[in-house]
């Protein structure tokens, strides 16, 4: 493609444009001689204070009658640099210089190959033609043209061969010019309109064409738009279609108008030759130089076409024409000079004779003489119109009009049913309303919020919203009364954080003796909770005060003993039988004593005869003395007989040998030196028992620790993280089986995985417990967080409030940006477009970077940046949402970066490289880079990440085995996701609210979606032409197409596709596209705070954890990172 010619004009930030005359043409070289105020080289425009809907205001300057601009020297609109100025009596005209041809205002070099391209729309044989491409290649030296019309469906492909006249007009434009004749470009400069009507009298078919030739574009190629309406004769499949050499005579009917009438025959050869005669009327309107003398304006020219070739390629669905064209002048004795044709008719030369032909819209009555009358044709009555079936035909003198019927919209030739509320699939909690433009749309009712297609309850009791978090099949999304939002809760009989649930054992089977079983009001599940006065997790409960702890008998009440509590693993004071209290204070119970309360005496004790009431200690006897019976302690015991205790062997632990303590003997009720639990006495020494628990006997391996097993209610040895065994013997392990509150992190130095408890928990990674909850210390939570019960942890924890993001201990503001618009790449530019463009706001240019080729786009919704890949510079760039602050973060370290995705939580970017066949990740500043996937890739292209799930998805459009794959965002747990019924999958997008993955397939011409669970795969739209990138916003899918100059839009539930016209500022194919959201989706991962504790790359995984990774060896930070693992 040649370099674009310079353009000049104004462009506002909102997309409004004003193009100056001659922009994109050779005229721009004369701007120093041109003016809009009558002073050469001076231009004046009002560009400010014009109002939001006004454009550039031109100066209010009248032509100066004293200045004659009719001469080449004085004009302010001079001829282009590649033409010369010829002065005539009343003015001047431009004439192309030697070696070029054209009309003087547009000149092309002789004998250079030329191209032409455009679009064909309309209806043909009751089939809609939508954005059909036309391309032509022309040898101007020989007048040879090659025309191709692509994407003609096979059901009308053979019939469409009758459209060969489209190739004929291209031949007229660039026909070889014989002496004294001008081709179409020399007359029009490529800027004209043609109207053609073709009648097939044998079949009754009629076709109407409107062609709009826009002249050379900035690359020097002519652009054309064609509208087709009507029918052509049916041609059998496989038939050969021919047309003999023919002539067409173009007559200058009036100033700026050429006309031609001809009759030809199509020859269809299958089993036998069939001839299909037809007549063709064509009118060409253009703008000529009015000062050219009449004698220089030829009245008629003859176009000769030879070597005609017509074919329809069924396999490629392409219609092809080619022919050789030349143009010659008619002889000087023009037969139309003496003709006197009537009203509404014109004279056409036919060889050496002439005839009067009625103008289009009229028919002849009264014979074929010059006096014949031309009267209006009622196309509506004779059914010669081509209005849409849903339009009304209205006859007008010389023509007809088509108007869409009520309930339909369009231009009359194409009418589409207007969208009504019945066509929409509004949510059951939404209503259909019409917006300011009268377009029906879905709106959630009061008490609900959403886009109208999905509505979530704003109050308790309605449908719920988990804000992009996918619940486990055994969980449900419930409103959190504590927080006011929604989250996943496991159903009854299951346990877990809600994002995954496992079958629950009876949580209350192992409650501590000082705990009780309670039911969670939200989840309706049981859990253990310590009783009042105790603290712990319900499985181990301790007294809130440590005052009852003791060290032998010294600090207990005189009526209490210091006894080891196996359940609590502590020594504590316990009141003796007959007394009650906490062991530090004991009072006599009312057993054996009757207590009477008197006003002056707190207690009065009355002795009771032990013969009447057996109240003696087991270590006492009831003895009669002096007519009374009383209790007396036996030998070796001391006390009042009601309470008897042995004479103590020891008074403190220091008096006992190793592995023994001074403790109460339950048999003798005296303090004796006794072996510690887990030990037994042999010959006055305490030896360890084989089955003793490790909290009593330190018999664990050096790489093991002694831990309490909640389920078995005992202590046991457990190997440390990275080791396996029974705890008494441990060996290295390279796998993980971490606690649900721990992360499995790979240590590349040791070549193994380590379990590490998350922030807020302590333990060995295999068992993690909260260090201290926010109920104990409210200052553990950020000022923008609340302390709520977290069912997945079964404890209280911190959670950031709405509008903030973080782990609850640190919360930062979730920024809000101007939203609801698209950013897409076209050519060297990035442009912005509203989700619903209007006439006054079609979008605007954001930025242009010289020679770049942006392919993939994504946004950092936390900081308000756009990130894009640049294949030309082998780089990744970023800029603010408004297009400013362009910065290259990675350059020439990639080969062909294509798809890109931003993890706004972990602050990383992911991309594919189709030349290196790898998937890589880097910090947002591009400093630390790591290759995650480098095997099994053929043609990786699109990539998206789900930071909340820790998963990434990418396409590989390997033609032999196209697929969509998935892996954790640290590169582990790779697996195929979609492998069947794929053509050429291009780019991907995730709907974070529905948990859907959508993609474009250029091979199957589809837009498809599937749930991230792998279910509910469905086609959203087909046939797409050549879809490339895709994005999702408000339940609508938007995509770019390499063959269409539109952004395409369709509802996720299907429906009619909308084509959104591109704003000015870009050129060429549209590549990447992304939605700019108001806020980031509400989710979190293990890297959200302090980079997950990693010094370099923190990469989340799909297990809810994260991996600390080192950069690749060729990137900064690799050596230092590896040393940190040593």
TrEMBL record:
GO biological process assignments: canonical Wnt signaling pathway; cell-matrix adhesion
SMART domains assigned: EGF (SM00181), EGF_CA (SM00179), G2F (SM00682), LY (SM00135)
Sequence intervals crossing the membrane: none
Tagged with keyword Calcium: yes
Domain NIDO per the UniProt entry, residue ranges: 1-50
LDL-receptor class B repeats: 864-906, 907-949, 950-994
Keywords noted in UniProt: Basement membrane, Calcium, Cell adhesion, Disulfide bond, EGF-like domain, Extracellular matrix, Glycoprotein, Repeat, Secreted, Signal
InterPro entries per the UniProt record, alphabetical: 6-blade_b-propeller_TolB-like (IPR011042), Cueball_EGF_LRP_Nidogen (IPR050778), EGF (IPR000742), EGF-like_Ca-bd_dom (IPR001881), EGF-type_Asp/Asn_hydroxyl_site (IPR000152), EGF_Ca-bd_CS (IPR018097), G2_nidogen/fibulin_G2F (IPR006605), GFP (IPR009017)
An MF annotation (GO) of this entry: calcium ion binding
Annotated CDD domains: EGF_CA (cd00054)
Domain EGF-like: from-to ranges: 376-416, 417-456, 462-502, 504-542, 546-587, 646-687, 690-731, 770-812
Domain (Nidogen G2 beta-barrel) ranges: 112-337
Annotated compartments: Secreted, Extracellular space, Extracellular matrix, Basement membrane
Cysteine pairs bridged by disulfides in the record: 471-488, 511-528, 556-573, 656-673, 700-717, 781-798
Gene3D superfamilies per record: Green fluorescent protein, Laminin, TolB, C-terminal domain
Gene Ontology cellular component terms for the protein in this record: basement membrane; plasma membrane
Protein name: Nidogen-1-like protein
Taxonomic lineage from the root: Eukaryota, Metazoa, Ecdysozoa, Arthropoda, Chelicerata
